[in-house]
């Protein structure tokens, strides 16, 4: 692109506009234009090849060297990079399973597709890794590949989300959040909040931005909240729609909710990034957020950026989901290395944050 004005400039400098006939000038420009365009394309392609996308770097990561004989080889199949939570979760794996601690890590990003994860697991099996860590995008459809891992004698640790399989001996153990409890906690919090605002018996109109459908985080949060909703006949769920755990999708869904319903009181956002998208859409619609506004938002994850919004009152309560599962996975690996038994299910400890708390102090010392 730079070369085009440059050719024209050269034309002027060389006096073509004065000395040559018009036809000659056009021919000259044409000739150089072609060369410029060709060069542009070439440079463009070169730049493209060299740079790669952000995703390329995360998609696959394998220690550059070959594993040493006594290295513990770990294959991790991650969901994707859809949220702040996910990025923090991935980073924790990278920081935990390091070469200097004697680990050889093969990291595969499933990019939100179960088939990619199945392929990754088969690759791990072929490479005869020592352990597989699977964070499953969805709950079902794992029986066959987990059977293959079991047949190859490779222990599989399910991390974060869960799998639903006929035979639970297909995996060694699971470590993650109790998503059902998170959903219930959110419902119970809302009940108390409405009570305290004198709205305990008023009609309450709710919409839910669900996470990626059929993921444990979505199923648990939706179901847990619904269980509490059943106890409150004055709560009305206007609509559930998935925002796929992303800010962009949630923005679109929230725009649609606002166009469709003019009386939304509460938005349940099944993660923080979707809450960011919802906030954007609500503000653009000219509505006010927070306990003295038109709409309140309840979110899940409680990442630092979202806690800043709790501080501002734009999110009224945020239910924590701890993304630092890697050290617990490491503990499990170490126990298995020593031949010790491990618990089948291990939940991480979690809490919640709301507008009444002193956020500044909390945010300061928060890891993520
Ligand atoms: O809440 C969301 C992420 O599975 C707990 O997935 C995880 C969820 C988390 O993308 O932000």
Structure description:
- The longest helix is centred in the N-terminal third of the chain and has 30 residues, at 22-51.
- Helix 12 (304-312) links the parallel strand 10 (296-301) and strand 11 (317-320).
- Helix 10 (247-260) crosses helix 11 (272-284).
- The strands form 2 sheets. The chain has a 7-stranded mixed beta sheet, sandwiched between helices. Strands 8-7-9-10-11-13 form a 6-stranded mixed beta sheet, with helices on both faces.
- With 368 residues, the protein is an alpha/beta fold.
- It is built from 14 helices and 13 strands.
- It folds into 3 domains: 6-60, no CATH class; 70-177 and 323-337, Response regulator (Rossmann fold), CATH 3.40.50.2300; 179-321 and 352-365, Response regulator (Rossmann fold, 3-Layer(aba) Sandwich), CATH 3.40.50.2300.
- The model is unreliable at 1-29 and 36-58 (pLDDT under 50).
- Helices cover 47% and strands 17% of the residues.
- Beta-D-fucofuranose is lined by residues 82-83, 85-86, 160-161, 177, 217, 245, 271, 300-301, 321.
Briefly summarize what is shown.
With 368 residues, the protein is α/β, with parallel strands linked by helices. The protein has 3 domains: 6-60, no CATH class; 70-177 and 323-337, 3-Layer(aba) Sandwich (Rossmann fold); 179-321 and 352-365, Response regulator (Rossmann fold, 3-Layer(aba) Sandwich). It has 14 helices and 13 strands.
């Amino acid at each position: 692109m730079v070369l085009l004005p440059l050719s024209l400039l050269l034309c002027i400098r060389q006096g073509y506009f004065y000395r040559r006939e018009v036809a000659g000038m056009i021919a000259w420009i044409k000739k150089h234009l072609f060369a410029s365009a060709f060069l542009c394309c070439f440079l463009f392609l070169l730049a493209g090849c060299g740079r790669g996308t952000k995703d390329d770097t995360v998609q696959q990561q394998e220690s550059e060297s070959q594993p040493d004989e006594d290295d513990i080889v770990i294959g991790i199949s991650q969901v994707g990079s859809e949220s702040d939570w996910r990025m923090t979760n991935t980073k924790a794996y990278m920081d935990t399973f390091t070469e200097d601690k004697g680990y050889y890590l093969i990291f595969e990003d499933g990019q939100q597709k179960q088939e990619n994860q199945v392929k990754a697991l088969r690759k791990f099996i072929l490479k005869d890794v020592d352990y597989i860590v699977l964070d499953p995008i969805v709950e079902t459809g794992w029986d066959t590949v987990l059977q293959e891992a079991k047949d190859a004698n490779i222990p599989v640790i399910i991390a974060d989300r869960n799998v639903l399989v006929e035979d639970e001996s297909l995996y060694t153990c699971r470590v993650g959040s109790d998503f059902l409890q998170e959903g219930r906690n959110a419902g119970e919090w809302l009940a108390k909040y409405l009570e305290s605002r004198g709205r305990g018996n008023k009609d309450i109109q709710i919409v839910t931005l669900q996470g990626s459908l059929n993921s444990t985080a979505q199923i648990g949060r939706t179901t847990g909240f619904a269980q509490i909703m059943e106890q409150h006949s004055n709560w009305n769920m206007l609509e559930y729609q998935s925002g796929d755990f992303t800010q962009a999708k949630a923005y679109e869904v929230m725009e649609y909710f606002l166009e469709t319903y003019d009386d939304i009181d509460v938005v349940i956002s099944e993660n923080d990034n979707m809450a960011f998208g919802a906030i954007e859409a609500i503000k653009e619609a000219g509505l006010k957020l927070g306990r003295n506004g038109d709409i309140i938002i309840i979110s899940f994850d409680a990442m630092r950026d979202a806690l800043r919004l709790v501080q501002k009152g734009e999110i009224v309560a945020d239910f924590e989901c701890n993304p630092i599962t890697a050290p617990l996975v490491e503990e499990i690996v170490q126990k298995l290395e020593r031949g010790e038994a491990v618990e089948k299910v291990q939940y991480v400890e979690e809490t919640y944050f709301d507008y009444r708390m002193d956020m500044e102090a909390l945010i300061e010392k928060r890891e993520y």
